[in-house]
């Protein structure tokens, strides 16, 4: 679980990251990254019903939070990251999802 300090929680924070952040898309996920100097790394996740049923959406969200937690523990800081899951992302294995998220966020 991500600590409260490492979560994007309000609609205004999500909106700011999506509108003002840098966007990078892959076939399964869209990343929005908004720089915030001197602040902790924060994650927000958008997983719509188009991704799948409740079980698939919740599993995907838990996996993405786990990768986010590992990045926070590794000492990354200074930005808000909003991750929007696209249809097909629920079929990724743990290693594929983790590897792709790490590679995208290392840019």
Automatic annotation (TrEMBL):
Pfam families recorded: Ribonuclease_P
Q: Which UniProt keywords apply?
A: Endonuclease, Hydrolase, Nuclease, RNA-binding, tRNA processing
Which reaction(s) does its UniProt entry say it catalyses? Endonucleolytic cleavage of RNA, removing 5'-extranucleotides from tRNA precursor
Q: What PROSITE patterns has UniProt attached to this entry?
A: RIBONUCLEASE_P
Key word Hydrolase present: yes
* InterPro entries on file: Ribosomal_Su5_D2-typ_SF, Ribsml_uS5_D2-typ_fold_subgr, RNase_P, RNase_P_CS
- Quote the EC number: 3.1.26.5
Described function? RNaseP catalyzes the removal of the 5'-leader sequence from pre-tRNA to produce the mature 5'-terminus. It can also cleave other RNA substrates such as 4.5S RNA. The protein component plays an auxiliary but essential role in vivo by binding to the 5'-leader sequence and broadening the substrate specificity of the ribozyme.
Assembly: Consists of a catalytic RNA component (M1 or rnpB) and a protein subunit.
Q: Which family does it belong to?
A: Belongs to the RnpA family.
* Cross-referenced HAMAP family: RNase_P
State the PANTHER family in the record.
Answer: RIBONUCLEASE P PROTEIN COMPONENT (PTHR33992:SF1)
Q: What is the protein's name according to its record? A: Ribonuclease P protein component
Task: Report the source organism.
Answer: Pseudolysinimonas kribbensis
Q: What is the lineage of its organism?
A: Bacteria, Bacillati, Actinomycetota, Actinomycetes, Micrococcales
């Amino acid at each position: 679980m991500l600590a409260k300090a490492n979560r994007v929680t309000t609609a205004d924070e999500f909106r700011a990251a999506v509108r003002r952040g840098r966007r990078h898309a892959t076939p399964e996920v869209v990343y929005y990254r908004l720089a915030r100097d001197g602040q902790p790394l924060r994650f927000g996740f958008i997983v719509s019903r188009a991704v799948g049923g409740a079980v698939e959406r919740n599993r995907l969200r838990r996996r993405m939070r786990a990768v986010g937690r590992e990045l926070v523990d590794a000492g990354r800081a200074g930005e808000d990251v909003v991750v929007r899951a696209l249809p097909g992302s629920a079929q990724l294995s743990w290693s594929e999802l983790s590897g792709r998220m790490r590679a995208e966020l290392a840019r």
